[in-house]
Amino acid sequence: MRTVIIKVDSKEAEYIERLDYERGFTKDVLQRIIESHMDDPGVVNSETFKAYQKQGVELDAQFKMAVTELERKYVPDTLKGHKIRWNLEYRTAELKVDILCNCTIEGIE
Predict the structure, then answer these.
(1) 30 near 53, Cβ under 8 Å?
(2) Nearest to residue 34, comparing CAs of 49, 55, 56, 51?
(3) What is the pTM for the complete model shown?
(4) How far apart are the first and last CA of the chain?
(5) In whole angstroms, what is the distance from residue 91 CA to residue 81 CA?
C-alpha cells in the first residue's frame, strides 16, 4: 500500500477537529440522557433533549460538509477515481492518503 502525506492548513484541521469533538460530545450527552431516563418518555420529549438532538444533527452536517470540502481541496485529482482511504491527523495537520489499488498513478510511486 502506498501512502501520500499532504500538509493541510492548520486552521482547517483545527476546525474539523473541533466539529468532530463537539459532535462526539453531543452524541455522548444524548446517549447518557437516554440511558438515564429509559422509563421516562417525558425527558426524551423535552425541549432540552430536542435541542441537543438538533445540535447533533447540525454538527454532523457541518462536519460532513467540512470533510467533503477538505477532500475536494487537498486530495490530488490524480487520485480521484482510485480506491483510497484517508485520515486527517489533527495534531500534525497532515492528510494521510492510503492508495488501496495497485494502479499506476502518474506522479505517485
Answers:
(1) yes
(2) 49
(3) 0.85
(4) 10
(5) 28
